[in-house]
Give the backbone structure.
Amino acid sequence: MTPANASTDPSKGSAKISLHQSADPRRVLADRVEQLYSQLPLGIVATFVISVVAAYELREGRYVEIVLFWAGLVLLLTVARAGLYWSYRRNAGKVDSAQWLRWLAISALANGATWGFAGAVFFPSHADEQQVFLAFLLAGMVAGGVPMYAVSWPVYALYAAGIVFPFTYVLATFGNKLFAEIALLVPAFYAINVGIAYRLNEVFDSGYRLRHAYGKLTEDYTALNQRLEQQLVELEGARRQVEASGRKLALFAERSPIAVFEFDADGNVLSVNPAAENLFGFTASEMVARPGTAFMFPGEMESQVASRGQSFIAERKPVFGLRYNNIRRDGSEVICEWNLTPLVNPDNQVVSVIIQGRDITQQLEAERIKQEFTSTLSHELRTPLTSIIGSLQLINSGVMGDIEKDTLELTTIAERNGQRLLDLINDILDVEKIESGKLTLNPEVLELGELVAESLTLNRGYAERFKVKLAAVAAPEHVKVNADRKRVHQIMTNLLSNAVKFSPEGSVVEVTMEYVDGSTLRVSVHDKGPGIPEDFRNRIFGRFAQADMSHTRQKGGTGLGLAICKRLVELMGGRIGFSDRDGGGTTFWFELPKHD
């Protein structure tokens, strides 16, 4: 960040701070649940200890079996609550906080109901001393639940209700006037405790909001302080930063294996690196302060490149991959690839331009030789191979006389493999033509339905070898496209052969035609094969692309078919793709513009 970027407007340098910003309700709920579960172990231990004491004191009553049953129930509930706590600690972030709160509320109600059961059953069946003990015990359980569950007062209300209401009913129906009067006071005691829990709940909420506001205030203050410090550091060290950047750029340019120039906005050379000196044969002193086009593009090209350079300065956007024929000092010509990057100041003015160039003459020559070699090799192979295949076809047809069965099998295999090799050569030639830009199309107005029907007829024999049927579904009639007949057949043959190879015996490969919109037609080939592996989908239209499956390898193929289809469709102004079919299989489709 430069000094010009540092804002001096206080309204931009500071953020509005409010202590009344609302906290995220989900975060509040999560913290509330965390507080409740953090106190759960203490509650579990306390409940278990008190239940043991209570069972010991009440063991001499008339219902010893019920006391033991109740003690077992408490033990079972204790284990369940411990399991709930353990589950929360392991899966707190995987389950919604509201669900954890509901489970805790259910466990609290069950805990309270267990103690309410003790009051309802044991109070009438025991002596006065034990009744007093039980009453104080239940009151203590109600009061003790306040700090345990006050973070969520509804949970506490459920817990206390499970204790109070059964005990109140017993007191009211005991037949004792004193107990009946006490029964009137117990709900009041319950209401007071719920009120206390409610107030503690509010204290928790207020405390949380205060912590949130304080934390936000601290964050804002820290951020503001950091921004101020950063701006001061940037303002004080701007010159050093510029100098350091200059040194870094100079070091990078000095050691870069590619030619690096720095031009000013007028096209004059400011600096060069050693690679630039080696590229053009001029020394740095001979190039600096001169127009770069004077020695990089002498002659007619100089004015054209200078004009384009001015357009680049006006647009102020990087440009990559420019290729020019450049002249070296000794008069030799090299082909270079250039990348131009403008350095713009805060006022959006071009200060200088960094130009990087590399000699790609040998690279282009190697590519040309490779293409020539591929083309020559393919043609030298195709001519004799065509002759061999023709001879094998004559032998296999029986024209040359009957041959033995074993010999026929061998010649049939030879013919089939020869045809595969010929297909590979043809595909390589097509790829080479496409990449070199030498592939020419012969577009004409054609009826797409007829092309599809012809393709089905041409490939029906191939499909019969795999015991698969080809079928065309009803399609729009008299639909015309401007396309190359031969190349459309080639696309259809590739898609149909793939669909046939990967469909099970006895299945039907369907071809459909439909309008995508008013101006585009889509032809789809639906197979019932195993589908496209997930890790293969993003490269299925690449060269030599084949899924790495034994089933795929057994079916053969060059891996070039879909790559060729993609380029052919694009050259005819369309696009190609695929999708999964409901119930299994894959649909490959291509689209072509409708001819009006």
Remarks:
- DSSP finds 18 helices and twelve strands in the chain.
